[in-house]
Automatic annotation (TrEMBL):
Its EC number is 3.1.4.46. It comes from Brassica campestris. This is glycerophosphodiester phosphodiesterase. GO terms for biological process: glycerol metabolic process; lipid metabolic process. GO terms for molecular function: glycerophosphodiester phosphodiesterase activity. The chain crosses the membrane at residues 728-746. Residues 38-336, 352-648 form the GP-PDE domain. The keyword 4Fe-4S does not apply.
Amino acid sequence: MLRFFIFFFLFIHSCVAAPKIPAAVPATKWLTLNGQEPAVVARGGFSGLFPESSASANDLAISTSSPGLTMLCNLQMTKDGVGLCLSDIRLDNATTISTLFPKAQKTYKVYGQDLKGWFVLDYSADTIFSNVSLVQNIFSRPSIFDGQMPVSAVEDVLGIKPPKFWLSVQYDAFYMEHKLSAAAYLRSLRFRGITFISSPEIGFLKSIGMDALRAKTKLIFEFKDPEAIEPTTNKKYSEIQKNLAAIKAFASGVLVPKDYIWALDSANYLKPASTFVADAHKAGLEVYASGFANDYRTSYNYSYDPSAEYLQFVDNGQFSVDGFITDFPPTASQAISCLSHQKANLPKIGNALVITHNGASGEYPGCTDMAYQKAVDDGADVIDCSVQMSKDGMAFCHDSADITATTNAMTTFMSRATSVPEIQPTNGIFSFDLTWAEIQSLKPQIQSPFSTSGGFQRNPANKNAGKFMTLVDFLEFGKAKAVTGVLINIQATSKKGLGIVDAVKSALTNSTLDKQSTQNVLIQSDDSSVLSSFEAVPPYTRVLTIDKEIGDAPKPSVDEIKKHAEAVNLKRSSLDTISESFATGKTNVVEEMHKGNISVYVSVLRNEYISIAFDYFSDPTVELATFIAGNGVDGVITEFPATATRYLRSPCSDLNKDQPYAILPAEAGALLSVAAKEAQPPAIAPSPPLDAKDVIDPPLPPVANIGSSDGEAPPHAPPHSGTIATSANLGLSLLAILALGVLFAVE
C-alpha cells in the first residue's frame, strides 16, 4: 500500500507539468574541471523529507531532480557482511532499534573516541530487515513517516537504477577491526552500477584502486574537519590539504565540507572564498561540496534562499564546484538548470507581478529608502507604501501606526505609550502621537517575524540602515526609478479621522501619477469605503485586502467586490490550506475571483523555511511556483523580491516550454498521502466562504484636525491621565521584548 501511495504521488507530480526533452539544448560553459554541468548528489535520496535512503526518499529524489542525478548511499555493514544504506555506524538516531532492543546498547572505540549506541555490526541483516524501521534523524523535518519504511540494502538502491550511484565508505578501518571488509563487499558486487566511491581513509581508496579503475568507478577522497586525523597517515586533514597533487595518485576528486570553500565569520557572513577549488582543479581533481540543505541556517548573505547558496558555489564568475551533496536535490537541480547564468535585466516570463511588502524588508528595515532601493535593484515590479500620519500631519511610509517593533522608539518615547483598542489590543507608541521630526530622529530596525521562533534574525549588519520616506518622496522615487507601479496601502485601522485618504489623493495629484498611464498606481485597503473614494480616478487599480482566511468566494461576494475593487490581496492560507506544515488542500478562490475578472495577489511570501510547507520542499522558489504556476495568481507580495524575480526570469518557470527540467508546483495533499493514516495530522475544518456583507464597510469618518496648535489629542486617543500613562509604560516594559513577535505575528 505504501508503494502505491508513493507512486501515486509521483504520478501526480509528473503530470502537473512533465518536462519535455528538447531536440537540442544550448550548451552552457561551466567553470568546473571539465566544463560540464555540476552534479547533483542526493544524500540518501530526498532525505530532507523522508528518512534517509528509504524507498520513498529515493523515488522522490529521482522524480523531482534533474536527469543526471547521482544517488548517494552511506555504507554500513551488518555482522553477516550485508551492506546497508544508513548515515551512521549506529542505528539509534535513524531507526526504531532502541524501542525494540532497549537494553542492547554497546560502547565501541571509533577512531580514538568512545561511542555508545546500537551498532549496525551487532545485528544480522535479517534481524534489521524483519524488525527495524527508519525514522527521520533531523528533528525539524517531518516525523509522520517514522516507523513505516524498512532499511534499504545497497542492492535495493542499485535496483531502482538511479542515473548514477555514489557509495560513501566512512568507517572501513573500524569495520576491519571487527573482521568486516568494505573492499570485499564491493568486490562481491563487482563494482557494478557504482559511479563514485568516496572515503576519508586513504588506505581504503588505495586498496580498491585497481578494481575501481577496471570498473570505471571514480574514487573521491573525503576531507573531514581540518583538525581531524586521517587514519592511514595519522596526519591532520589540514596537512593533507597542502599537497593536493598527491591525492591525484589515488583519487580523481575530493569531497569537502562547504566551509572549506566559503567559510563564515563569527557574524555568519561569508568570508572571501578560499583558493581550494582553484588549487584542486590545478591538480586535476574534481571538487564536490557537502553540507547543503534547505532547512539549515547559514550565511545571511543568502537571505534564507537556498538557491542563492548553490549559485554562490557554481555561478560566482571565478570558479565552480563540480557537484553538491544535498538533502534537497530538487533545489540544487533548479539552481543549476534554471537559475544560474541569469543575465541582468532579463525579462520576466508571464504576467505575474512581483509586489513588495515594505520594500525588500527581508534584507533592510521596512519602508526605508534602502529597502526600496534594494527592491528596485532586485527587479520588483511594484513597490509599496503603507501610509501613516505623524502628529503634525506628515504622510509617510510605515507598515503600522505602531512604531515600537520597527524603530528604537521604546528607548526614546516610552512616555508616549498609549492604548488604542481600534488599532490593536496591546499598548504601543503610535506615529500620530509623534511629530515628523521626532520620527525622523528614530533609528529604523529590521523586523524579523520569526525571531522568537528559534532566533531567525534578518541581516543584522543592516538592522538599522536607511531612513523612513515621506509619501511624497516615495512617489518621486517610484517615478525616478521607472518601476512598473506603486502600491499605496491605506489601512482601515489607521485612517480613522487622520485624513490619510485626502493626503494620498493630494500627493498623487501633485506627483501627476493620476494623469499618466506609464506607471500603474494601485490603491490597497482592507476597507471598501476607502477604495470607493478613489473610484473617480479610472487609471488606479483598487485592491481589497481580505485579512481573514476564506475557503470559497461565492458569486454574490465577488459581485460585491467588483463594486469597489479590481483586485484582491489574499492570505496564502486562503489558497492552499496548511495543517502542521503540510499542504492539505487547495481552494477554488482564485478561479472564482478570475471568473469575476478580479485579479488575485497573494501575501505575504517570506524565505525563512519555517514559514514554508514541507510540500514546497522548504524552498521559497517552489512556493512561488505553486502560487504562480499552480494557483494562477496575478501577483505575489513578498519581502524578498530577489527570489521572486529570479524565479520569474528563469525559463523553468514556463511550464509550456520544452526543456529538460521545470520548476513544478506542489500538489496539495500528495505528500501527506504517503504517510500512514494514523500518523497524519487531524483534518482541519474548511475556512468559511467570503460573505458579501464582510466586503461592505461604513462611510469614511470626518477628518480630525490632528495638527492643531492647541495640543488637543486626536479623537482616538484616551485621556492622558497619570494612571493610564503609568499602566501603559508598565505594559510595554513587561511585554515589549517578549510580545513584539505577537504584535507583528505572521498570518
